[in-house]
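> agent: user asked for a holo structure of the chain below bound to S-adenosylmethionine. Plan: (1) validate sequence alphabet, (2) canonicalize SMILES, (3) run complex prediction with ligand conditioning, (4) return tokens. Step 1... ok. Step 2... ok. Step 3 dispatched.
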Amino acid sequence: MKTATTEKGIRFIDLFAGLGGFHVGVSQLGHRCVFASELDEGLRDIYAKNFCLAPEGDIRRIDERLVPDHELICAGFPCQPFSRAGKKKGAKCPSSGRLVDEIFRIAEAKQPKYIMLENVPDVISIEEGKFWEYLVGGLARMGYEVDYKVYTPREFGIPKKRKRIFIVACKSGLQHFKWPAPEMGERSLRSIALKSNDQHNAISKEKEFALSCWQDFISQTSEFTSLPILASEFGATYPYNKKIKTVKEMSAYKGAFGVSLQDCKTWASVQEKLPKHSRNENGKASPRVAEAIQYSREIYNRHSVFLELWKNDLKGFPSSWTKFEWQGDREQANIWKHIIQFRASGIRIIKPDCAPSLIAMSTTQTPILGEERRYMSIKEAAALQSLDMLDFFPDNNSKAFKALGNAVNALIVKEIAKELIH
Ligand SMILES: C[S@@+](CC[C@H](N)C(=O)[O-])C[C@H]1O[C@@H](n2cnc3c(N)ncnc32)[C@H](O)[C@@H]1O
């Protein structure tokens, strides 16, 4: 089959288009997008503004005969039904799981020479490999030779570890094709921060203060592991690994930050004085929480003189700011040299060379670049997907981070397409 080129390269279509990671990567090679489909109206508007091409909506409602002729189908079909988060329902999933059939339907009608797909690596193993068989078998039956490879953006010099599987298929075989073997070297997250000139939001004075308290804690105690540290346990003595019977029994103990429970007359007043993580019905902590409580109390015992004073500063903080988790560099005991996330489960310190997952990141979880004492911007997050050249993004952080988390990395797409299209 001969590749029918347009004025500029071949024609491609962008299914499940999202923010257009495939569009960016493939068009950078001089190829032209002739059709896109995206369910989400907001993303469709943004795509139209970025690429001057208005995507169609739900692909299930598109008559394949109306899809313009093309030589390449690109599709990052929704990964949710096949990822861990989607409970691995696979092709049995009645809605999104069958979306791969839409790719088959269009490929059958239009017979493009190439297909490029992207998904989560789990796609291979869900349903004991049945979905994978369905996918690869379907492509093979239509006459495509298929190959696949898992990449992380890190291999392409982007400070992000997220693994994605790329699947390529070609009607005339893949003898010509080799997977790119990038030698782009490691880049730190800082390199992305420095590149960006867009609006930056500084962290609030309250958050800065909370982080300096925790920095003090680390400098003075040198206690940091990936086990959560629960500051509200500093000075607490209440029993956490057995069912509590009566208010009277509790009055002999101390609650959050060492407050006495002596004057409590009701169970409700006891609960109020316990740390939030221990306010459950029967007073018995889960094994995970119990481990963190024990660890935190041991730290308190080792450094009680310092912590007795230190904990006073934390008393007014939201409960989640009193929990602390170190996933950072042990050699570098400095919070400000790290990425920081304020999560519902606590403050998390992350190694500075790799961005946390962008997916499902609410506004409050937006990573903080410690050295700059500000939030990572949308453009910087876009740089992690090699999409920072786009002019338009969803206008609020959580929508933008979600769309970016779902997007395919445009640089990886480009490098693969370079080898595939000949
Ligand atoms: C994993 S994301 C793909 C992101 C895209 N590759 C990018 O670079 O941004 C899947 C996208 O498919 C869209 N989608 C889901 N069901 C769809 C359908 N029936 N028709 C068209 N798009 C759909 C979702 O809204 C989502 O944006």
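> agent: step 4 complete. Summary for user: The two ends are 12 Å apart (CA to CA). The pocket of S-adenosylmethionine is lined by residues 16-22, 37-40, 43, 58-60, 76, 78-79, 99, 406-408 (CB under 6 Å).
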